[in-house]
Structures are given as C-alpha cells and as structure tokens.
Specification:
Strand content: 35-45%
Structural class: mainly beta
Mean pLDDT: 84
Shape: globular
Order of helices and strands: HEEEEEEEE
Radius of gyration: 17 Å
Number of strands: 8
Largest sheet: 4 strands, mixed
Length: 171
C-alpha cells in the first residue's frame, strides 16, 4: 500500500511541475489551472518530423464523449508573428475550450516545392486518414501535445505519423 502512495505522490509532482521557458506566455494572468474554459498547452514538433510547422489553429470539436463534431471557424494562428517550429522545437499557448471538450487542430507546414504554407488537413484524402490531430481538455488544465510530420508516398500527402496529447506539461 505504501508504494501506491509513493507512486501517487510522484505522478502528482510530475503533473504539476514545469520548467520556465522563453516561449511561455508572459502576460500577468497566466492562470495555468483553475479556468475551466482555458487550456494551457505545450506543443512539440518532434525531432523526427520532416517539416517546419508555420501555422497552428484549432476549432472546438464538442464534448469528448459525443465524438468529433467541429463547429465554428478556425482560430487565429496560435504561433506568434513570424514564429515557426522546426523539428525538435516547442512553444506554449492557451486554447479556449471547456473542460471535458476537445478541439481539432489545423496544421500548416512550409512546402519547399510551392514555397508557401500547406495545411495538412486540407489535402485531398486527409479526412480518410486515421490520425485526427486533436487537443483534449480532460484530466487537467495543462497539456503536452506532440506531433511528427512526414510525407507518405503511399498516401501522397504530408501526414502526422505520430500524435500524442497528454495531461500535464512535459519537461
């Protein structure tokens, strides 16, 4: 039984600890917990990614228990002006979705062929792909989201070959 309490304490420590970061929002109302309609996110473009993320947007997708039902318009870019996320880089931002809800993500990458931003969600056939990039406001008010983006020749598109969405801010 003592090991259970030790593990519970260790997990609690990991969930509530976080390092300072230069990309972290600096406004004075950084209420990282307690606002039931606001989620604090650390977004990581994994080192294995083959693309630089130039745009991140979200759209509320409803209650997690009711399926993926996006409504409304895409948000503004969650990245700061002229900010990009090369493979291995990360940033922090807030997403305004209530607890127990989730949001679908729209990811823009720099396409070296067309020399412009390509939204992976808008590629023909993407709706049929099994990984739907989402951010879930469940289990806490802080989240770590990771993505790996690669070109898959069999689908002929850029795809998230890895996506994770976990409670807490990962160091």
């Amino acid at each position: 039984m003592n090991i259970f309490y030790f593990l519970l304490l260790a997990v609690s420590f990991l969930v509530f600890s976080c390092d300072d970061d230069e990309n972290e929002p600096t406004n004075s109302d950084n209420n990282l917990t307690g606002d039931k309609n606001r989620l604090y996110v650390k977004f990581i473009n994994n080192p294995e990614s083959k693309y630089t993320v130039t745009t991140l947007q979200y759209k509320n997708a409803g209650l997690v228990t009711s399926g993926l039902n996006p409504i409304g318009e895409w948000s503004d870019n969650l990245l700061k002006t002229n900010q990009t996320l090369k493979p291995g880089e990360h940033t922090f931002f807030f997403v305004n979705i209530p607890r127990q809800y989730w949001a679908i993500c729209r990811i823009g990458v720099y396409d070296s062929v067309s020399k412009q931003t390509l939204f992976i969600n808008d590629q023909p056939g993407f709706d049929d792909y099994w990984i739907k990039p989402t951010i879930t406001h469940w289990g806490g008010d802080n989240r770590t989201v990771k993505v790996t983006l690669e070109f898959r020749s069999d689908e002929n598109m850029i795809l998230p070959t890895f996506w994770s969405d976990w409670t807490g801010i990962e160091n």
